[in-house]
Amino acid sequence: MPLYTKYRWKNLDDIFGNHKLKIALQTSLEKEDKPHTFMLTGEAGTGKTTTARIIANELGCHKNDLYEYDIGYASGVDNARNIKENCIYPPMYGKTKVYILDECQSASKNFWDACLKILEEPPKYVYFILCTTDPQKIPKTILTRSTKLKFDLLNDGEMKLLLDKIVQLEGFKSFPQDARKEIVKVAKGSPREALNILDLVLEIGDDGDVLEIIKGYSSTDEQVIELCRALIKRKTWGEISKILKSLEKVEEERIRRSVLTYAMKVLLDKGDEHSANILNEFREPFFNSGRPGLVLTCYACLQ
Known about the structure:
By secondary structure, the protein is of the alpha/beta class. It folds into three domains: 149 residues, 3-Layer(aba) Sandwich (Rossmann fold); 62 residues, Helicase, Ruva Protein, domain 3; 81 residues. Helix content is 54%, strand content 12%. It is built from 15 helices and five strands. Helix 8 crosses helix 9, helix 11 crosses helix 13 and helix 13 runs antiparallel to helix 14.
């Protein structure tokens, strides 16, 4: 089992970092008149969906009364109508019914229009938890009806504590400190990324090999920048395809964020129309389309 799955938070006390968020969440859940719509925002891999399930449990929701929708796939008005119709019926097993709408920035205008009434006046036993990496795309009418909780990336100190804790729990007393520091540097605040890297090297006995692998992992940053430059300069598809093949093990969202940042800087500095086109092509996350979506988006940038 991957480390990030094995050590996934199971209750509010497990939430690592984001102390202010945890306090705000606990306060909200202790109220007699609890909010019926929560919005969890933050970068990928910071714990939004896991926390949404914890909130559902805290609200007294039985697993059979918990409904999770990946809005990247279920963004249409028909799904919104299904949710509205399902809300009419009280929970069969627990005290509440909870609807987790993951990646809800992908929802269509018609979806939100159809859901607005039920979000405004839900039955007393119904709660909604909206998870998003891009709250700017959520209509204001929805934002103003939500209790917003933002997950921040971990700082270096928090990341080191997390790694120390997991290494200890896994029973490895001699894992090198230099390797821990390098993981902190490479993960850039993402706990999921840090545990993925740790998983890759934890059982390797040679300290030199461990550092080499982690640094090799971080060297992909240079390859991502190479991809950014190639897209800006409209290099041939053969050249871009070669770079993409070298990035097969790099998370698509990490590549997308790097391309967006690079293209934005070029646009601000030079007012380059092609960089604006790249920003437009890379604006949607790859959570659902994955590697094929990344490849297609890069190809579209050359057209």
